[in-house]
Amino acid sequence: MKESPPRQTRTIRLQPHTTPEQSRLLLQTMDEYTSCYNDVCQRADTQQISNSVDLHKLTYREHRARTHLPSQLICSARVKATESIKSVMAIRKKQVQIHQRRLKKAKKTGKAIPPLKRARTPQSTLCSVRYDARSFRFDRMTRQVSLVHVQQEGCRINRMMVSVLTPAYYEQYLTPDWQQESADLLYRKGAFWLHIVLSSALPAVASTNHAIGVDLGIARLAVTSRPHYFGGKHVKETNNRHFRLRRALQAKGTKSAKRHLKKVAGRLKRFQANTNHVVAKRIVAMCQPGDTLVMEDLTDIRDHVQGRRIQRRAISNWSFAQLQDFLAYKAAWKGVSTHVVDAWYTSLACSRCASIDKQNRTCQSEFSCTQCGYRNNADENAAYNIRDAYLASCAMRAASGHPCQDAYRLGSWESGTSPSPSRHGSLDA
Fold first, then answer.
1. How confident is the model at residue 1 (pLDDT cuts 50, 70, 90)?
2. What is the pLDDT of residues 272-308, one digit of tens each?
3. Is 428 inside a domain boundary?
4. How far apart, in whole angstroms, are the C-alpha atoms of residue 403 and residue 336?
5. pLDDT tens-digit series, residues 235-268
6. Half-sphere exposure (CA, 13 Å, Cβ side) for 229?
7. Looking at residue 321, which CATH number applies to its domain?
8. What is the spatial order of strands in the sheet that 136-139 belongs to?
9. What average pLDDT does range 339-344 have in this prediction?
10. Phi-psi sector, 2: left (phi>0), alpha (psi -120 to 50), beta
11. Are 195 and 265 in a shared domain?
């Protein structure tokens, strides 16, 4: 069976222009959709059910009888609730593991720890409606979208045609090359927004056998093995300034302070997203089609950091996962593959002699090997280790008869040992 080519996705954000009657129908649809979502979440959590088929048998007939929703949206709400409850169960499992580790450590130190706090059951006040290919259709020619809504008495058709405003930037995605996958209808601050997910096949690019390590950090958001440095003091100072402002306003607690908090809400999030976009775009721009970007696996990084309080706060306040996601999808569009490697000891190991010692890090920015005397910037040295770990993993795969293949989506687990002293990043090294 021939494998389908890898695809990439984009989400475009459009604003529907609805009449008062259409707005009323869409709000009623969202209300009943939210009711179904909350009911499925509550029953799944109470009865400890996370199987989608079991939840469908448990709730579908009742929701079909007491709501005016079509069957597509009832199934959509159940699927969305199933995803939420599975996520909560995974979070609770992780919380228990962390709590057990803290209890074990507290027994040794004799310090008391707070009781276990479990994640709450997912509940929504106005849940966004997820449409699939059968319940919505966007017409590229007329710039109108067809949406399913609640069934009205005396009406056999429960669809509406709504015109949408299409920014000029989105015209590149409104071509036959991009296939419509799904859409989410949101209601924010008195306006409807439609997030349409589109997908397109990725271009086939031959590998250049060059790998580039990318180390993510705090002082510098990203350092590559080329080497290039991205982000600096301005990003760190802006992050700290927003933190001090929020802390002061929350401590004051007055009405004016709460108004100010509401005013600046989301400002840091937008700044981080914009910075991550800029850094990801610059990193991908220095790559050639067929290259490989290698990054650390930073899953649960907040649980593993054991530095000072300021360092833990800095790591917790920046979205490294978002930066990695931006790198992955921007690189895929250019024909650059992405891989992740184990993050253990990448900042403590020497990229020249592979010696691992805590004394190698004399300070945050300097690396000095106690064995061979190699000195360099600590983040640049870590970028070399990240790249060399991927090269070693590819060499091991080639020796076992399984050559290292490109991955167009971030998430493949590649780990290796014995860093190479080479600096050109070739798989032939």
1. very low
2. 889 999 999 999 999 999 999 999 888 766 655 555 5
3. no
4. 18
5. 878 888 888 888 899 898 899 998 888 888 788 8
6. 12
7. 3.30.420
8. 129-131, 179-188, 191-201, 7-17, 159-165, 144-148, 136-139
9. 86
10. beta
11. no
366 and 341 housed in the same domain = yes
Cα separation, 236 vs 251, in Å, equals: 23
Cβ-in-10-Å burial (0-12, 13-18, 19+) of 164 comes to buried
Are 70 and 151 in contact by the 8 Å Cβ rule? The answer is yes
Q: What range defines the domain where residue 171 resides? A: 7-201
CB–CB of 197/182 below 8 Å?
yes
Token pair in block for residue 133 = 């290919």
Beta-bridge partners for 92: none
User: Does 172 lie in the same domain as 26?
Assistant: yes
Same domain, 165 and 309: no
Q: How far apart are CA 278 and CA 282, in angstroms?
A: 6
